[in-house]
From TrEMBL, chain A:
The gene is atpF. It comes from the Bacteria. It comes from Fictibacillus nanhaiensis. Pfam families: ATP-synt_B (PF00430). This is ATP synthase subunit b. Residues 63-142 form a coiled coil.
UniProtKB/TrEMBL annotation, chain B:
Belongs to the ATPase A chain family. It comes from Fictibacillus nanhaiensis. This is ATP synthase subunit a. The gene is atpB. Key component of the proton channel; it plays a direct role in the translocation of protons across the membrane. HAMAP family: ATP_synth_a_bact. It is found in: Cell membrane; Membrane. Its main location: membrane. Keywords: ATP synthesis, Cell membrane, CF(0), Hydrogen ion transport, Ion transport, Membrane, Transmembrane, Transmembrane helix, Transport. It holds the Pfam family ATP-synt_A.
Amino acid sequence: MQNLILGAAAGEGLNTGDILYQLVAFLILLVLLRKFAWGPLMGIMKERQSHINSEIDAAEKSRQEAKSYLESQVAELKKAKEEAKSIIDNAKKQGEAQGEAIIKASRDEAERVKEAALAEIASEKEKAVATLRQEVAALSVKIASKVIAKELDESSQEKLINEYLQEVGESR
Amino acid sequence: MEHGAVTKDFLGLTFNMSNVLMITVSSVIVFLIAVLATRTLSMRPGGMQNFLEWVVDFVKGIINSTMDWHTGGRFLALGLTLIMYIFVANMLGLPFAVVVDHNLWWKSPTADPTITLTLAVMVVALSHYYGVRMKGVKEYGAEFFKPMKFLFPLKIIEEFANTLTLGLRLYGNIFAGEMLLGLLVGLTKMGIFAGVLGIFPLIVWQGFSVFVGAIQAFIFTMLTMVYLAHKVSHDH
């Protein structure tokens, strides 16, 4: 049972070779793994970390951009609404003004047409009167010639003139 | 249940061929695991890369719990290699042991105190080396007289005690585990009744040994980082 104390498996004596072998093996393993495994692994982990960092930064940036864009869009929309409202108001005012102008113009036109009609009526009346005068003159000549032709006496002549005058008055 | 070992003398050094074999096997397995897992690295890790990144983060956590990353970052490769090597070495002796002509060939290399003490001495030596390199001889030497001058002998004893406990803790756990496994296997060979009776504690003990092996690998790495931090950091 003495073998169960330190170095049980080793039998007797100190295994100096084992010590050296373990040390060398571990150091070789350390160097090899550092070169072939830990180095690349650490590299990719660092790369991923920086990738994630940059992605988060980019996302934050685009979020800010989207926010400012949204704000500007809202402002634009508000502006556009106000503009549209002012355009509609303007159009309404303009429409009313135009309507009034049209009504006024048509009233004036009607007035003018009425004036023209009145003037025409007056001139027609003048014409008619002138025509009548001519007719009266012609009739007088006719009467005179008839009187002369009949050689009437004074009383019948007067009677005849009155008759004709009356006739003229009635025809008028 | 006593097993001998084949020893060979070479260049005035004594080699236990079983240890040489098992150290080589452990190293090769660790190397293969680590290298195969990092052959196809991608930004979106999967499978083995995921596992190895978890190990990296685990060791990073150990280092961060003992010192700040600025000084501790350089020990990451050491910690990773240590934890994986010791874990694999602990596991190797669990499934079976190979005995040829009463000589034990297949076992955990960490079930030999020579091996574990070698690792422990290496770690403590590294801690002294980094202590001198990162703080200078003067400050490194002054550490031995803090907090009080008369504690100097205790500080010296502490270094040896640290080395011994670090190595022997690992050896003791693994050696005891394999010893008991061997005894239980011997029990199952004694007869049909003992075999049926012995298989259950055997299974339980194997499961427990996996746990112990993992815990011991973690403890060894943890203590390595603690000793390194003790020598390297400025505020102790």
